[in-house]
Design goal:
The structure is a homodimer of 385-residue chains. The first copy, chain A, is of the alpha+beta class. The first copy, chain A, folds into two domains: 148 residues, 3-Layer(aba) Sandwich (Creatine Amidinohydrolase, Chain A, domain 1); 224 residues, Creatinase/methionine aminopeptidase superfamily (Creatine Amidinohydrolase, Alpha-Beta Complex), CATH 3.90.230. In chain A, 32% of the residues lie in helices and 22% in strands. Chain A is built from ten helices and 18 strands. In chain A, the strands form five sheets. A six-stranded mixed beta sheet of chain A has the order 4-3-2-1-5-6, sandwiched between helices. In chain A, strands 7, 8, 9, 10 and 18 form a five-stranded mixed beta sheet that branches. In chain A, helix 4 packs parallel to helix 5, helix 7 packs across helix 8 and helix 9 packs antiparallel against helix 10. The two termini of chain A are 34 Å apart. At the A-B interface, helix 3, helix 5, helix 8 and strand 7 of A face helix 3, helix 8 and strand 7 of B.
């Protein structure tokens, strides 16, 4: 298995690029509050984010080293990262849960000017709104504004080490998908298949199975976000499993469709078309193309070019999050660059309000794209019923 | 296994209590944006929240039915809940990701006055900060303010059906903990034990293992939030596993300590004291007592009454979240009521900067408290090395 963590140079590089971007945007610092952003800049990796009780802050100044302003319970783990300056308070504090300590730190480290927080699409601020209002007042004369998309832009381009981690996650899922025949057969409930597929992912090396969606039916499934039902699989069903498992904090995100016995002709045809669309997206994926170009390359195969996006998109970025910038939709003109990791996720309607969705993961390289997930053949995989 | 979901009457009751609280606080509606709050009021349950791309909104008016304002990808699943009014947009929309639709809905449904959002401790707003600013402008003349803790107060008191779900999760974890001897022995790495313990939880009926922490060493562990290391277990180690698994959207959250072979005398004594402290907390847990009372009841056993809270607390609420209000700390004067589900989580220092932590889950009843997790005996459980 690939090694854990990153060398210090990786974090120094991330910080340097953040600081160059701050200089361009006229910002004197960045403040991050969520697991993905904190992990990206510090290497602080814990499942403890599952507890919403405590806020966590990392301040990145325009010059100099990052400062972690965190609950005391995190001090031991943060001290194992490359972050040297760690300030803590006894959290939860019902009267002042880190706000004064953070404001004092901002004033001391930044002095004056403005710091940015990620405030655009796909972001949120992981602290109470009332405390954010207090913070804005307490930080004066330092102002708080948006980060002009700096953090999103940095995280969108993966280093080689990041790509390796995503590829490792993809390989784990690939081995689990190869074993679906062990757990899915006629009479098994979807709930049982979900449970046992997670076990396969763990057995094959996942740290955690953060996301699992799926569906099953003779002509596909009505949506791709419902929890598993207790309906038993039937001969002729098309079963889909879509997993976002993590390894060392990085996700894969792709799915596989299976036929339980002989597939419906419509399902077989739909699957072939989805693989064709995926290849079309892959062929279009190279530096200089846009996210919209990939959408259109796949949409042309799927619909002849109707460009409908009622229920979503035909792919997206991934990395520390299951889904990241950009979106493969007509409106997203993000220009692809080497190091961007994307999903290609075409969907196609079948009948009775059902659909099939296929998904692969790729990385943009200097010369085009490279598959990170093990590419499927056009014929849907048939499992013994 | 217990059945899935809740009867419609449960959601009607939750809404009615929310509306009574809005009337008391002078609010004309509530707006919720996070998985726990949306699930609480609607029953909308999906792992899709793992994707941060799209915002989701549910508006609860002072009178009348809830209105879901959500991405189109969620329409099929939301239509299976008790929510009748569902408005959707094609998300992600890079120019207007639900803001106009939500603002128009607020103006139409609420008309004038103020709506509240959860804004206090342990909350966050799950939408981009820049969009929230746009929303506040676009909602006029309806104002947006804090919810005066209404949602927290409602969710803190569990219905019988909610307690049953938590108890089911506790029982699943209990069966997995009984089997730790199958996976933990000298030479196994903590990473392997973490992976296989998640598999045991799934095999015993967990929907997902959202949280797993732990540690191991001859005198305990230095913190309780680090990811698993590749260090092999050694004879004499004290191994701790702390899991927050979910079943139908509700968590358990408790841990178990094990000795790999003969335990250190200090570990044995510490474990006995932790069980004594847990019983002391349990005895104090009854309607009318405060969260602080439970802290002091345990702290008296642990330290003689030093009341230090450097690294945390001695327990907390749980339910749809791994951790919920209140906190068992000296400052939390929350008065206990029947239906509150709590963890009792005493910790004790051993040596070399290490500690032991024990945790159980209880529910407050009319007459005192009831264990939801299977209570441990004072002697630490010894596994064959």
């Amino acid at each position: 298995m690939a090694e854990r963590g990153f060398p210090k140079a990786e974090f120094e590089s991330r910080l340097a690029r953040a600081q160059a971007a701050m200089a361009r945007e006229g910002l004197d610092g960045l403040l991050v509050t969520t697991h993905p952003d904190v992990y990206y800049f510090t290497g602080f990796l814990t499942g403890f984010w599952e507890s919403p009780t405590r806020p966590w802050f990392v301040l990145l100044p325009l010059a100099g080293a990052p400062v972690a302003v965190i609950p005391g319970i995190g001090a031991v783990l943060m001290a194992k990262t490359w972050v040297a300056e760690i300030r803590t308070w006894a959290s939860p504090d019902l009267f002042d849960d880190g706000v004064s300590l953070l404001a004092d730190t901002v004033k001391e480290v930044i002095g004056s000017g403005r710091i940015g927080i990620p405030d655009g699409h796909e972001t949120h601020l992981r602290m109470p709104v009332a405390d954010f209002e207090r913070l804005k007042t307490a930080c004066a004369p330092v102002g708080i504004t948006g980060d002009a998309g700096i953090v999103r832009a940095l995280r969108m381009i993966k280093s080689e080490a990041e790509v390796t981690k995503i590829e490792t996650a993809c390989a784990i899922a690939g081995r689990a998908f190869e074993r679906v025949g062990e757990i899915a057969r006629t009479g098994e409930t979807l709930a049982s298949v979900f449970r046992r597929f997670q076990m396969l992912c763990l057995e094959e090396g996942a740290d955690q199975v953060r996301y699992l969606a799926g569906g099953a039916g003779p002509s596909g499934y009505a949506d791709v976000i419902s929890p598993a039902s207790d309906t038993p699989l039937q001969e002729g069903d098309c079963l889909m499993l879509d997993t976002g498992l993590t390894r060392d904090g990085y996700f894969c995100d792709y799915d596989r469709n299976f036929a339980i016995g002989k597939p419906d002709a419509l399902v077989r045809t739909a699957h072939e078309k989805l693989i064709e669309a995926t290849h079309s997206g892959f062929a279009a994926a190279r530096p200089g193309a846009t996210a919209a170009d990939l959408f259109h390359a796949m949409d042309k195969v799927l619909t002849g070019g109707e460009a409908r996006t009622d229920n979503g998109r035909l792919g997206h970025g991934l990395g520390i999050q299951l889904t990241e910038w950009p979106s493969l939709i007509p409106a997203d003109e993000t220009v692809l660059e080497p190091g961007m990791v994307l999903t290609l996720e075409p969907g196609i309607e079948t009948r009775d309000g059902n659909m099939l969705v296929h998904e692969e993961n790729i990385v943009i390289t200097e010369n085009g794209a490279r598959w990170l997930s093990p590419l499927q053949i056009p014929a849907i995989r048939v499992l013994a019923p």
